[in-house]
Amino acid sequence: MPYHQLAIAQFGEPSVLTLQAASTPSLAADQVLVKVAYAGVNPIDAKTRAGLGWAAQQNKDNLPWVPGYDIAGKIVEVGDNVKSLEVGERVAGFIGFPLQGGGYSEYVVVDAESLSKVPAQIELVQAAALPLAGQTAWQALEKAKVSASDRVLILAGAGGVGHIAVQLAIAKGAEVFASCSAANVEFVSGLGATAIDYHRGRLEQQIDPVDVLIDLMGGEVGCAALACVKTGGQVLTIPTNTAERVCQQAQQLGLQAEGMLVAPNVAQNDAMLKMLAQGKLQLHIAAQFPLAEGARAHQQIESGRTRGKIVLAMGVQ
Ligand SMILES: NC(=O)c1ccc[n+]([C@@H]2O[C@H](COP(=O)([O-])OP(=O)(O)OC[C@H]3O[C@@H](n4cnc5c(N)ncnc54)[C@H](OP(=O)(O)O)[C@@H]3O)[C@@H](O)[C@H]2O)c1
């Protein structure tokens, strides 16, 4: 069966994303074929497309390459050993991370065990926006051991990871502060955090010291925010390219600091899907783009201004 994927044949600007024809590979016994309805878009997709970072290095001799780690759709075929999933079931997952990707595609073959069933109350567009960003947020809070007694500052609280991290930290009972621009103060406050407008001056002049910093910005912004953390406090810096620098500076200030790379975890995805179904977590979808307009989605994610998440919609012109 012929279908479309959005691939890069060379690294470069968003325009290098082009539709290519593909035909369905055969299934191994533990795999399923998913008809993808939506694919999530994440900053790493754009960085890799531009030829930056580890996934690009590893794939440079493996082009054309299909980006995309977040998918949601319906099962259309199951391998011989697959007992947990059936044809017609709605599923979502964090697939092919970090080297394989493959989500920007109308169909994808994946290991059955990498997928979550999507509860009936949740739209597939929401399920596609959740996996990578949600699991990053979950694992960051877990690594930083955020608990009910903590004051937590989250940088970029309005972004894909940030808006989920804010809600998960509040669900743990923490007191949450989140930095954003004036345009996002209402959005971030609506999630339950105290929004801090970073254009209004240095963050440490706007809030009292915090126990934990979840740094979703890295670089200069991450380093500057270290001044907000109590001596002995915990720093988790998420952007990998500046993690060493932020950690070094944090340690010089007497803080505990580490970076992280998200690891796919189906149990965490299941737990967050359940929270979504129960109305205990909200995902904001800023925009949907047809697969063929993936370049526009990449321009949007590269703007650094995305509120919540953006997704690619399959089968839409
Ligand atoms: N290590 C890992 O495993 C891992 C996993 C996931 C993501 N990441 C990385 O983590 C970072 C965040 O990812 P994401 O998906 O959340 O990105 P994103 O959705 O693109 O973040 C966009 C948000 O950043 C905010 N922002 C921009 N400049 C800001 C500033 N100076 N201070 C505070 N907020 C600012 C914007 O809000 P305003 O418009 O209000 O400024 C916007 O809402 C990216 O670098 C990504 O590559 C790493």
Explain the overall architecture.
By secondary structure, this protein is an alpha/beta fold. It has 2 domains: 2-130 and 283-313, Medium-chain alcohol dehydrogenases, catalytic domain (Quinone Oxidoreductase, Chain A, domain 1, Alpha-Beta Complex); 133-259, NAD(P)-binding Rossmann-like Domain (Rossmann fold), CATH 3.40.50. The protein contains 10 helices and 15 strands. It has helices spanning 43-49, 54-59, 124-129, 131-143, 160-171, 185-190, 219-225, 243-252, 266-277, 294-302; strands at 2-8, 17-23, 31-41, 70-78, 90-94, 107-111, 115-117, 151-154, 175-180, 194-197, 210-215, 229-237, 256-259, 285-290, 309-313. Strands 3, 4, 5, 6, 7, 14 and 15 form a 7-stranded mixed β-sheet that branches. Strands 10-9-8-11-12-13 form a 6-stranded parallel β-sheet, with helices on both faces. A two-stranded antiparallel sheet has the order 1-2. Helix 4 packs across helix 5 and helix 7 (219-225) runs parallel beside helix 8. The longest helix has 13 residues, at 131-143. The protein is globular. The mean pLDDT is 97. The structure holds NADP nicotinamide-adenine-dinucleotide phosphate. The site of NADP nicotinamide-adenine-dinucleotide phosphate has 32 residues, from helix 1, helix 4, helix 5 and strand 9.
